[in-house]
Design brief:
Helix content: 25-40%
Largest sheet: 8 strands, antiparallel
Shape: globular
Order of helices and strands: EEEHEEEHHHEHEHEEHHEEEEEEEE
Number of domains: 2
């Protein structure tokens, strides 16, 4: 089990990581999700031993890794740019770490063969790296990382250079491989779709801090803060004021919200207005309603994103006309 305890890191007097702590259990895939500059890649480099923290502890199975150099940590790394050797064959790329460990050639051949079969490249062993597509090269990078039988796998934006369709296919394949090998993994990305597809647990980083930690369904259902809700694009964020128990006033109208927080009249709060599953233009008697005049309509896959003149957006199955005044029912929750 990996334990990251109270990690701090600063550059040129500016705090980059601020008291980061979490654990990765055996067989668990933890995703570090955050915008560029949130500190997630630096944290990965500290865990791998490529950088040192200003304070804090990295341990594996309760053994402090502070004095353990990167090559002795037995951690596998997979990068966005693959970091493969173009002059070597696929077989030799996958075997590289094993040869460095002076493993017998017969065992190397067996392990390389089984790994190429695992990543669906069994017949590709003699090809050169430059003969492969981006997705195939990333499979080779994964096989090479797995070859040393790492105690932990780490991925730094591994699919960022691939197109959307290929990224989705490889993401599903990667999830399956991680579950089959039962190797704990840390997956760094800024892409929430990747994070929520592959992760057993999501850690959202913002300004060097973990601001949300939970399984994907919990994080999506309960972001706990306006920052997380905005980053995930969960709906419209509204500034509100408590006017009575479970009653809130905003510039877009008043809303009735069942709220577990303790509020006093006049307290300022953040509200999240999410689309309802069957969201459609509603009748005026609905309780929680967003209103406005349609200023733009954008088709997105199987529905329309409708942007109103007041900055509010909603999703509808049928497209209204620009200039039409509409009212839409929404689910509203209090983020405190």
């Amino acid at each position: 089990m990996l334990e990251v305890s109270n990690i701090f890191k600063a550059y040129e007097g500016k705090s980059l990581l601020n008291d980061i702590s979490f654990m990765v259990a055996e067989g668990e895939t933890v995703c570090l999700l955050g915008a560029s500059g949130s500190g997630k890649s630096t944290l990965l480099r500290i865990i791998s031993g490529l950088e040192s923290p200003d304070a804090g502890l990295i341990s594996f199975n309760r053994l402090d890794l502070a004095t353990t150099p990167p090559h002795l940590r037995d951690f596998g790394l997979v990068f966005q740019d693959y970091a493969l050797f173009p002059h070597l064959s696929i077989n030799d790329n996958v075997a590289f770490g094993l040869k460095m460990r002076r493993m017998a050639q017969e065992e190397i051949n067996l392990r390389v063969g089984s790994l190429l079969e695992l990543v669906n490249l069994k017949e590709f062993g003699e090809r050169k790296i430059l003969d492969l597509s981006g997705g195939e090269q990333q499979r080779v990078a994964l096989a090479r990382a797995l070859a040393i039988r790492p105690r932990l796998l780490m991925f730094d934006e591994p699919l960022g250079a691939l197109d959307r369709a290929l990224r989705q296919d490889l993401l599903n394949e990667l999830r399956s491989i991680l579950h089959r090998t039962n190797i704990p993994a840390i997956y760094v990305t800024h892409d929430q779709e990747e994070a929520f597809t592959i992760a057993d647990r999501v850690l959202i980083l913002h300004a060097g801090r973990i601001i949300r930690d939970g399984i994907p369904s919990e994080v999506w259902a309960n972001p706990e803060s306006a920052i997380v809700a905005e980053f995930l694009g969960l709906g419209n964020l509204l500034d509100g004021e408590v006017i009575a128990q479970n009653q809130f006033q905003t510039e877009h109208g008043s809303f009735t919200v069942r709220c577990a927080h303790k509020h006093s009249k006049g307290d300022k709060v953040h509200l999240l207005a999410r689309p309802l599953p069957d969201e459609s233009i509603c009748v005026e008697r609905s309780r929680n309603v967003l209103r406005g005049v349609v200023s733009d309509v954008i088709f997105q896959q199987d529905r329309f994103k409708v942007i109103l003149d007041n900055g509010i957006y909603v999703y509808l199955e049928d497209a209204p006309k620009v200039g039409q005044k509409i009212s839409v029912s929404v689910k509203v929750e209090c983020l405190a």
